[in-house]
Amino acid sequence: MTAIAGVVRELLVRYLDAWTPGALHGARGATFAHGWTGAPDAAAPEAALRVFAEFADRLRGRRLAVLLVGPTAVEVARPLAAIQAELGTPPELSVHAVEGELDGKLPVALKAAGAAGAPLLAHLDGAGPAALAAVATGKPAEVLLVSSTRELPDPPFPLTAHVELVNDEARLVTFATRQGKSLEAFKNALWAVDEYAGVRYRDPRDPEGHLLDISLNPHPGPLRRELLAHLAAAGERSVTDLREFTLTHTVYRAADTVRVLTALLSAGAVRRTPERGRLSGDVLISPR
Questions:
Q1: Structural domains for the chain
Q2: What is the pLDDT of residues 191-213, one digit of tens each?
Q3: What average pLDDT does this structure show over 162-187?
Q4: DSSP the chain
């Protein structure tokens, strides 16, 4: 296991903690798909099962299908029956292995699982357009995509976040969703991950490529630059607008916006209207 794979797995586990209760609330079924094109992270499905086992009481009258799709899927799935027996998971939690090429097999596997129109989260490594289009049939649908850093993928979802994981190699993680609250949950999970052997984050949109230590209080430098550049281009914006910009166009959380704006105001780099009072959502910020 590489250090980057460890970070991705912990990020997945933390996000599943947030996703699973909502996916099982009000829906009769939900699907988690784990797919890959190269060498699989064989520990990821077990980690996911352990999260799902914590919510076993919510599975009564509902189903949760775990799909493993990719080369060697059958081999990856083989130890999971023993894991389920150890955890005592109910029959409503099922595991299905579909072996073969991800882009060709994932659409078929999702259709067979009845994933369309129900909550769907896909954790994919190296997926192409056909796989991403198939994931979009879920309702709601979300994808955690791992890929090379050569170009930013464009999943068919309105809200996306991109972050590069860097040590002696680099991998790009993209999260895509249709729901702002899910993007918030992903960002919270992103910065709550434990540090792994020198792995740091980098915003692929940051022209300076600043490396960020993983921390609950990340270094504000790149966000400061991005907010100033946005204000210079767009002009006066409300704090609410700037929080949305931070959430959807940077690696930071919306909550980090006020911390950085407070520092910018203290430094005289921006001005606010009204000049005094709490920095609430309707306060207007403009460049100097």
A1: 3-212 (3.40.50), 221-287 (1.10.10.10)
A2: 999 877 789 999 998 888 899 99
A3: 95
A4: --HHHHHHHHHHHHHHHHHHHHHTSS-SEEEEEEEESSS--THHHHHHHHHHHTTGGGGTT-EEEEEEEETTHHHHHTTHHHHHHHHT--TTEEEEEEES-HHHHHHHHHHHTT-TTS-EEEEEES--HHHHHHHTTSTTEEEEEEE-SSS----SSSEEEEEEEESSSEEEEEEEES-HHHHHHHHHHHHHSPP-TT-EEE-TT-TT--EEE--SS---HHHHHHHHHHHHHH--EEHHHHHHHHHHHSSS-TTHHHHHHHHHHHTTSEEEESSSS---TT-EEEE-
